[in-house]
From TrEMBL:
Protein name: Excinuclease cho
UniProt source species: Ideonella aquatica
GIY-YIG domain residues: 21-96
PANTHER family: EXCINUCLEASE CHO, UVRC/OXIDOREDUCTASE
A GO biological-process term: SOS response
Length: 278
């Protein structure tokens, strides 16, 4: 009976050792032809996949695996984008990260506004709307984040719209224990409070898509092989080997994608990247 699992483990190791030591995405498949067990990415495919075979945390799904598939990319950016796209498309059983959230929330705070407005991706296009701050999986998470900023910067929950005004003097409870600057009781000017709010939210400001339409991000490896990654409104639409094929991939973005936004907004589109309008 032991020969079955041992033979399966030996077969997986042989498949792993045959992988290139290069960037790309790997997929572990079990008996299902449509539902992979796990999807990951690495700039060193062989080493990363071999590490799964000896990792106790991966043992449960490795033991169910029959096949290791890989898809090469010229570099890390392509691997990151492809991994996030495949996890959303194929919904592997053992990936918890990178699954598409149905609705995202953000705080919208325009200049001169007294308080931020909570908006979500069913109402607002996060890729093209200015003055948005933060990416939150739920309304509750957004409110908790704003409360944390209020604690850190002595902001008033009443003025933020998170609590109803108190009766009497108007001073909120947090002002009475020196956790609010006291704008609710007239102890500080509203403009002073609001300036702290704008400064607190500035670190969470979302970037607006900086191009009039889709662009191709060209990524090359050391051999000269290149791919064109098609991007529109922070959304990854696919990759092609030529500009002509890349243009055929351009379409309306299916919706704001938090993962591709985080991959691309960290400087990928600014730090020497080769970008071509499509």
């Amino acid at each position: 009976m032991a020969e079955g699992p041992r033979a399966q483990a030996d077969a997986l190791r042989s498949q792993a050792e045959a992988l290139p030591e290069a960037p790309g995405v790997y997929l572990f498949w079990g008996r299902s032809a449509t539902l992979p067990l796990y999807i990951g990415k690495s700039i060193h495919l062989r080493s990363r996949v071999l590490s799964h075979l000896r990792d106790p945390d991966s043992a449960r799904w490795v033991a169910q695996s029959l096949l290791i598939e890989h898809r090469r990319t010229p570099g890390e950016v392509g691997a990151l984008l492809l991994e996030a796209a495949l996890v959303k498309q194929l919904q592997p059983l053992h990936n918890q990260r990178l699954r598409r959230l149905r609705h995202l929330h953000a705080w919208r705070l325009v200049d001169g506004a007294e308080r931020p407005e909570l908006v979500d991706t069913t109402r607002v296009d996060f890729a093209t709307t200015p003055h948005l701050h933060g990416l939150f999986a739920s309304r509750h998470a957004a409110q908790q984040a704003l409360r944390s900023l209020a604690d850190e910067h002595h902001l008033c929950l009443q003025r933020l719209g998170l609590e109803r005004p108190w009766r009497g003097s108007g001073a909120c409870f947090r002002a009475r224990i020196a956790r609010c600057g006291g704008v609710c009781a007239g102890h500080e000017a509203p403009a002073e409070h609001d300036a702290r709010l704008h400064a607190a939210l500035a670190a969470l400001r979302l970037l607006v898509w900086p191009h009039p339409g889709a662009v191709g991000l060209i990524e090359c490896d050391e051999t000269g092989w290149q791919q064109v990654h098609v991007l529109r409104h922070w959304c990854y639409l696919g990759s092609a080997d030529t500009l002509t094929a890349a243009r055929a991939l351009d379409r309306s973005a299916p919706g704001f994608d938090m993962d591709s936004y985080r991959i691309l907004s960290g400087g990928v589109l600014r730090e020497g990247a080769t970008l071509v309008p499509l």
